[in-house]
Amino acid sequence: MRALYTAATGMAAQELNVQVISNNIANSRTTGYKRQKAQFQDLLYETLRRPGSATSDQSTMVPSGVQIGSGVKTASTARVMSQGTLTATEKQYDVAVRGEGFFRVQMPDGRTAYTRDGSFELDGTGQLVTHDGYLVDPAIVVPPNATNVSISAAGQVQATVPGQTAPQDLGTLQLARFVNKSGLESIGDNLYVETSASGAAVTGNPSSEGFGSLQQAYLEEANVNAVTEISSLIAAQRAYEMNARVITASDQMLSSTTQMFRG
Fold this sequence. Notes:
Its main location: other. Residues 4-34 form the Flagellar basal body rod protein N-terminal domain. Pfam families: Flg_bb_rod (PF00460), Flg_bbr_C (PF06429), LlgE_F_G_D1 (PF22692). The structure is a single chain. The chain has 263 residues and is α+β, with helices and mostly antiparallel strands. The protein is built from two helices and 20 strands. The protein has helices at residues 2-26, 226-262; strands spanning 36-42, 45-49, 66-69, 72-79, 86-88, 95-98, 102-106, 112-115, 121-122, 128-129, 135-137, 148-151, 156-160, 168-172, 175-177, 185-188, 191-193, 202-204, 213-216, 218-220. Strands 7, 8, 11, 15 and 18 form a five-stranded antiparallel beta sheet that branches.
């Protein structure tokens, strides 16, 4: 019976939907996390009577036809790249992006990754790194005797060094933006890499045209809304249950048909 297979695709789709929602909820406290949203498409149709086909020699035609669908498939699990809430941390190496842009991170294999997680630290040589020790690009090296480090909204990094009246310039943090940031591929650890769908990275200084500004001692929270996710979870559960009932009903109908033939 066709309904069995159609309902099975619906159950599989809602199972994936629940997996996406559960990942959003699990990462509701992950710095810079961007929630995902499952999107679906209907599968191919079997056309028993094509709309617009002729029904007589007098040019009469079928107004709607007969088509039977075969279920649903997952089209994408797109990232929602909206701004998350900025929260004060009181740590001088924490930096949040307000607006467009990603920090650039140099991976050990030579690739460049991108992140909205600005919870940076210093390594043993004074270089600005991520929690996993990946270098921030362009490199920022803080002198060992620096007493204070400031990061402006435009990304300029300066350090107060004993014996110098003027702050010492250490460089400028840059941001990267993409034509289609939803096309970035997540590789875990709050990192993304560019793809052909995202387009090549466009690099620029914070606060310049098209780029967001930086805010020191702040971090961007995940853009996950708990109420929205719970509502989506309930809707997915109900849809799963309805598809399960279709399978039960189809099974009972098949059983009745079999008994009729045997009788």
